What we know:
By secondary structure, the chain is of the alpha+beta class. 16% of the residues lie in helices and 26% in strands. Strand 5 (57-59) and strand 6 (64-71) form a beta hairpin. The protein is globular, with a radius of gyration of 19 Å. Mean pLDDT is 87; it is low at 1-21.
Amino acid sequence: MHALRRLGSMRGLFGARSYSSKIQTMQVGGPVGAPAHRLYFARNGSPVSPWHDIPLMANSSTNEYNMVIEIPRWTNAKLEINTLAPFNPITHDTKNGQLRYVANVFPYKGYIWNYGALPQTYEDPHEVDAHTQCVGDGDPIDVLEVGQSVCAEGSVHKVKVLGALALIDGEETDWKVLAIRSDDPQSQVINTVGDLEVHMPGLVAATVDWFTKYKVPDGKPPNTWAFDAKPKDDVYARDVIRTAHASWKKLVQTAHSDLALSNASVDESLHRMSQEDQGDAYNALFGRGSVPTAEPSEDANSKWHYIPSR
Length: 310
C-alpha cells in the first residue's frame, strides 16, 4: 500500500493548481547509498516535480513557505533535487563517478540541520546577483531547517524564514536560508535571526564555521562569504526568495533548456505535460521496481535539544 505524505491545501504563485492534501514519494534503484537511488514524487497517478509542482508559498498571508527536505540532519550523504533528470527526483550526488558524502569536521556530525530546498526558485547562473555581485549557482535556493525534529528525505514542511547567509562557492552565489518548521515547538518564539541567537546562541556561528570548512577534508580551500559572513534578516531573505522565484518563472517559460522542466501543473510553463503523457510517465517510472516510502514516525531519540549555557 502506498504511503502518503500530507502537504495541506496549497496554491502556487505561478498558476500551479491547488494541491490535494496527499502526495506520494516512491523510491527507485535502492536505498540511499545505492548508486541508482532515486526518490520520485507522485500525486493521483501522475509523477510531479518537487522543484516545479510544489508551490513556493504554503501561506502567503503569513509568509510561510514550503520546504522540500533533501538531507536529514546528522546524515552525510549529499542528496539533492536533480535538476537534470525528468521530474527532478532526489538523487545521490556524484563526483568523478563516486557518491558524495560530507566529511565529519569536529565537532560536527554530518549536516547539522535538516537540509533542503525551496521549490519554484532558481539561482540563475546567467544573471549577476544584485546582492552579492556574483552569478547564481544554477540550483533552487537551499534551506537550513533548525527545528528539533530530524526530517525524512522527501518530506515537505511548512517553514518560517528567519534570515539568510550568502555563501560564495567558486565565485557563485549560494544562498543559505535559515528557517524553522511552523509546527516546531520553538517556532512561536523564533521569528527572526535575532530570536535564533537568543534561543539557540551559537548556531549561526556554527553554521558559518561548518560551511567554511566542510570541503577542506577533500583538499579544497575554505569557502568564503559575502557580507563578512553576517546573516541578513527575514525581510532581506524574502526579497532574495522573490528574486529567485522570478528567475524560476522565467526559466519554465524557456523553450529549450539543459535542465529538466517537465511538470504536471504549472499552467504558464511550456513544459507542462498532458494528462495522457503524465500517465505514461508514471507507468514508465513506477511500473516495476519502485518501493513506496513510509510516513516517518516521530522518534524521541531522533530529536535534538538546544540547552543554552547559563
